[in-house]
Amino acid sequence: KGKGKGQKGRKITLKIAKNSIRMAFDGGLRLDLSNMGITTFPNCILKLADVDELDLSRNMLKKIPSSIQMFEKLRWLDLHSNQLEELPKTIGTLQNLFYLNICNNKLTTKNLPEELNLLKNLHILNLGLNHLDSIPTSLGALKELREIGLFDNALTTIPNSVKKLPNLKKLNAKRNPFPDSTKQEEHADPIKRIETLYLVQEKDLCCSCLKMCRNERDKMNKLNNVAPGPSKKPSFPLLLTPNSSAKDNQEEWRLR
After folding, report:
1. Could you tell me the CA-to-CA distances from 88 to 2, 32, 34 in Å, in that order?
2. pTM over 0.85, yes/no
3. Is the CB of residue 167 less than 8 Å from the CB of residue 143?
4. pLDDT tens digits, residue range 232-252?
5. How far apart are CA 77 and CA 47, in angstroms?
6. Within 13 Å and on the Cβ side, how many CA atoms surround 230?
7. Domains detected in the chain
8. Beta carbons within 8 Å of 184's beta carbon, 6+ residues apart
9. How far apart are CA 154 and CA 3, in angstroms?
């Protein structure tokens, strides 16, 4: 009593953990302990290591123990939005892992375990919102990778071994200090989008649609006829800048 040991999080008991097991979309078992104020990995969940999915996101975890290897069946691991500075080497033993989300943490390139390249069945990897200044070329061994998130880091280049992965469909590398930002933005979203405009004759529109279109046309004509006034930049003196880029880019790292 009375001894200060820093921030004290919620204690997760085996009973709480068992009550947090849900049925996953594909019929597997999902242990959902997200957003529960956890500061240390709850060792009691090692007794539930037969689950298929584990969600520890949006907590205050600083470390994942090497005992994570006990989750041999794990296909889906979500650790986003914690305070992780490193990952255990044993994460490479999770050979069934399909999805790994470790974005919005404090990971550096130095503390990314080389064993990540052993996750041969990995399809989705999210490393966004960390402190990475480079990407290990060894990640090019993840031949099944479909999507990789590298946004909001300190990257100046992406190795060809990663960009040219045979099954890669989506590479999000937005908001990194690339020397040629325009060129790198092309890697962020390789899908070219076009907008199609369909034209119809007035006689093909119903009465209500025709009336609506005419009203909109009249509004546009009125706006076009208004003389432009002196330009003035808007001022927002009370607008506060968010203290984390995560607030601006939540949709990129939220759960699917």
Report:
1. 32, 21, 20
2. no
3. yes
4. 444 444 444 344 555 566 666
5. 17
6. 1
7. 24-172 (3.80.10.10)
8. 158, 173, 176, 178
9. 39
